[in-house]
Amino acid sequence: MMVLRRAAVKMSAGYEAMPRTRLGSDARLCKTSGPVFAPDGFTQLIELRHVGKTYQTATGAFQALRDIDLDIRRGEVFGIIGRSGAGKSTLLRLLNLLERPTQGAVRIEGQDITQLDAPGLRKLRQHIGMVFQHFNLLSSRTVYENVRFPLRVAGELSRSEQQARVMEVLQLVGLTDQARKYPRQLSGGQRQRVGVARALANRPNLLLCDEATSALDPETTQSILRLLLEINRTLRITVVLITHGMDVIRAVADRVAILDHGRLVELGDVIDVFLNPQAETTRALLAESGVETESWHGSVGESGRVLRLTYKGEAVALPVLSRYGRELGLDFSILQGSVGRIKDMPYGQLTISVAQEDDARVAQLLAALTGHGIHHQVLR
Ligand SMILES: Nc1ncnc2c1ncn2[C@@H]1O[C@H](COP(=O)(O)OP(=O)(O)OP(=O)(O)O)[C@@H](O)[C@H]1O
Ligand SMILES: [Mg+2]
């Protein structure tokens, strides 16, 4: 990890030294319509507005995506989760126009990318890296040639510049010593590192990952996720990743979109979605990954209130429950509780019952907790 970290920092410095031409001054993706990737000033990197996708099939029209409205922020890791066939890959492929929307607008840095002409679209794709579940490497080419491939297609660098760039990204993914090997001589995790290096070769500012870890064992999955996080943090590349696994979302994503049968059923900060899922699909996906969302089972006496308290960040360290309990003369029993971290954020969630039947005092308690940023639900 240390080796990787050093390499990443070094590469980051390289990025900084480079006037952000990758998507800056030369990034006129479309000569007639101006730069899609404006140098600065946009919080939202991507905006989808009322996006729909209908496929024409032999058996008629099939609507794979319906009325999707979402923003992806610059610099975040944005997760997309849903069951097979929910429309995740379709949604991802709209972002580099591998699929065209049949309704609505896809804007990147303010520009509707469906309006780009052919050179503009080529430029756009050059600056969006993509990582696939099954790596999609050229089996007859070495690691070096696989990574160089997008640079040759772009045709912007001299041979020696291409060589320097290939070695730079191979160093970033920790594969400098594997450059002469062929994909079949590598492990799955190493192949995916080649896939990531190739995606980074043109110095993208957006990385799309379609189930990048689904073909890997748990340990390798973790190492690839760490790599993606490093890339996101050190190179400040926005990452959009699709997964079937809530554990993947929990480990790396800042925000998450849940798709179900082509609809966006939930969207929010990962920690909020985990602690307070709203959609039935989200609750089911969480339950399948072992996250308990129905945390109290009525196993207390008939009377008194049952409350679920959710707190995160600094609120975790506050001893407010015991303090206000003492001040208000309320006694609690803990019915269920969990504490942990989601990405970097500490959180806690407690389900408690209040012994006293005194709604006025309970209301005072809840007001005090809200004042400290502690979210509550009255379950009974
Ligand atoms: N080119 C196409 N023509 C017709 N239907 C398509 C096409 N591509 C996808 N679909 C259909 O659209 C729906 C969404 O497909 P998509 O590949 O986006 O799902 P997904 O969420 O990525 O699923 P998985 O988790 O299995 O990869 C599916 O029902 C699929 O059969
Ligand atoms: Mg898919």
How many distinct helices?
12
Structural class: alpha/beta
**CATH top level of the largest domain?**
Alpha Beta
Beta-strand level of the residues, as a percent range?
25-35%
Total beta-strand segments: 14
The amount of helix comes to 25-40%
Radius of gyration: 24 Å
- Taken in chain order, the helices and strands follow as HEEEHEEHEHHHEHEHEEHHEHEEHE
Bound molecules: adenosine-5'-triphosphate, magnesium ion
Walk across the major sheet and give the strand order.
6-7-8-3-9-10
How would the blueprint of this fold be written?
Elements: H1 2-17, E1 44-57, E2 60-73, E3 77-82, H2 88-94, E4 103-108, E5 111-112, H3 118-126, E6 128-132, H4 143-154, H5 159-173, H6 188-200, E7 206-210, H7 218-234, E8 238-243, H8 246-252, E9 255-260, E10 263-269, H9 270-275, H10 280-288, E11 306-312, H11 320-328, E12 332-342, E13 345-354, H12 359-371, E14 375-378
The protein binds adenosine-5'-triphosphate and magnesium ion (MG).
Write a structural description.
- The chain has 380 residues and is of the alpha/beta class.
- It folds into two domains: 2-287, 3-Layer(aba) Sandwich (Rossmann fold), CATH 3.40.50.300; 306-378, 2-Layer Sandwich (Alpha-Beta Plaits).
- 35% of the residues lie in helices and 27% in strands.
- It is built from twelve helices and 14 strands.
- A six-stranded mixed sheet has the order 6-7-8-3-9-10, with helices on both faces.
- Helix 1 packs antiparallel against helix 5 (159-173).
- The protein is elongated.
- The relative contact order is 0.12.
- Mean pLDDT is 86; it is low at 1-40.
- The chain binds adenosine-5'-triphosphate (ATP) and magnesium ion.
- Residues 88-89, 210 line the site of magnesium ion.
